[in-house]
Amino acid sequence: MELLMAGVIVAAVIFAGSNGFHDAALTIGNAVVGRALSPKWALGLAVVFNFIGALLGEGIAIVVANQIIRFSGMSTDIILTCILIAFVSATIWSLFTYYLALPVSSTHCLIGGLLGAGLILGFTFDSLEFFDSVILPLLISPVLGFFLAWGLTLLLSKIFASTPSKPLFRGARMVDSVLTASLSLVHGIQDAQKTAALVMVAILAVDTMPHSELAVVEISWPVRITIALALALGTGLSGWRVVRTLSVRMARLDPVKSAAADATASVLMYAAALIMRVPVSLTFVLGSAILGTQYAGRQGHPRARYFIPMFAGWLLTIPAAALLAVTIGVIVIAAGQ
């Protein structure tokens, strides 16, 4: 049991690091492309605010740990094995898609891993809660991101139609530098909670009697700090492959459109984290917001050969991570017999 628990903690730290490595540069990509911030300053800002955000809030963690997946009634070893398999499969898919320069959701990597592990190890899921907290946000958030960014860009283009480009772009860059910090903060709030929630489930499974009712009521500070440090470290090591897909290849962004996309993503992410308390992907929201800016005001340059594979990656993430988890689970079960 001790070895399994250690494996869960190590896997959680690696997943949180890969999460920061894969996703965090997205929070600063538009600002860097729009020349609001230099890459060095933007990355430093992301590291700091991702760390701070990872220490805040726990509403999403409670939903993930207590309402979507039913861990109660299972043996401690099975619970730990399920969580370990989920982290491993989610990390593999996250790094694989990073290699392909495809923006995917680390949230849905983890959800898919849990689904696959639960399927092979006999866990049950609250199907209604899963639909309300995972599937609906998956479907609705990109649509909202697209139309809100489209509307905001159209509004800004009308308000500032007579403003010369130079002062307009200078002001937009100043706004976008603030929005970069805001996005990094909410990325930490959203993404760290799910990882921390599963670590807390593992700790409770070890500390309580087998087959007992498990209920996560708070995230301990040692867990918060550990996951926050891993997320911040991954952010600091973050590469630019996915950023180039979203902010350079998929669309052509000027500073106003960069700020509009970042503002839209920031509002939706905070609403999901603090009001609705549902896990929402920054990748989904920001990617669709960037596309929305391309169809408003001065015509943009969306490139289908980049955003069509991106949508395919979004749709495949949950089933692909689940299939990976099933495969790993079958190997684990066969090795234990």
From TrEMBL:
PANTHER family with a match to the protein in the record: PHOSPHATE TRANSPORTER
Subcellular localization: Membrane
Membrane-spanning residues: 41-66, 78-99, 105-123, 135-160, 221-243, 267-291, 311-335
Record keywords: Membrane, Transmembrane, Transmembrane helix, Transport
Topology in membrane: Multi-pass membrane protein
The protein's name in its UniProt record: Low-affinity phosphate transporter PitH
InterPro entries recorded: Phos_transporter
